[in-house]
Automatic annotation (TrEMBL):
Signal peptide: none annotated. Keywords: Coiled coil. PANTHER family: DOWN REGULATED IN RENAL CARCINOMA 1/TU3A (PTHR16768), PROTEIN FAM107B (PTHR16768:SF1). Residues 52-81, 95-113 have a biased composition (Basic and acidic residues). InterPro entries: FAM107 (IPR009533). This is Protein FAM107B. The lineage of its organism: Eukaryota, Metazoa, Chordata, Craniata, Vertebrata. Residues 43-81, 95-131 are annotated as: Disordered. It comes from the Eukaryota.
Length: 131
């Protein structure tokens, strides 16, 4: 970057520019606060006196970011993972149906169970005789 030509010349008539003072940094309160923050940072302390509203807002923001990351990972699932999930759901449905039929069998009266067993035995005997 080229420097302006008025810096090199020693013309006394020109007013030389100087850096403006930042009024915020120049204030005593700001300097004290900055000094305290630097000391706390060197000690490894963090300011814990945040207002409750700020804590809640930060927690919401973190939760929202985590939720977005989960959604992104779900969207990035491969075809293989989707197929595995479908098969897992089918297996769960089959298990549920199996449990339902078992519960129905348990709820049947005893004479119906015996009748079903007799039918199975008759079919097995007839199959064995016909073979």
């Amino acid at each position: 970057m080229a420097e302006p030509d008025y810096i090199e010349s020693d013309n006394a008539e020109l007013i030389k520019p100087h850096k403006l003072v930042n009024p915020v940094k120049g204030s005593r309160n700001h300097q004290d606060l900055h000094r305290e923050l630097l000391m706390n940072q060197k000690r490894g302390l963090s300011p814990q006196n945040k207002p409750e509203l700020q804590k809640v807002m930060e927690k919401r923001k973190r939760d929202q970011i985590i939720k977005q990351q989960k959604e992104e990972t779900e969207q990035k699932k491969s075809d293989f993972e989707l197929e595995l999930e479908k098969r897992h759901q089918k297996l769960e449905e089959m298990e549920m149906e199996k449990h339902k039929t078992e519960e129905e069998q348990e709820n049947k009266p005893e004479f119906l169970k015996v009748k079903g067993n007799l039918r199975k035995m008759n079919q097995e005997i007839s199959n064995a005789n016909s073979s």
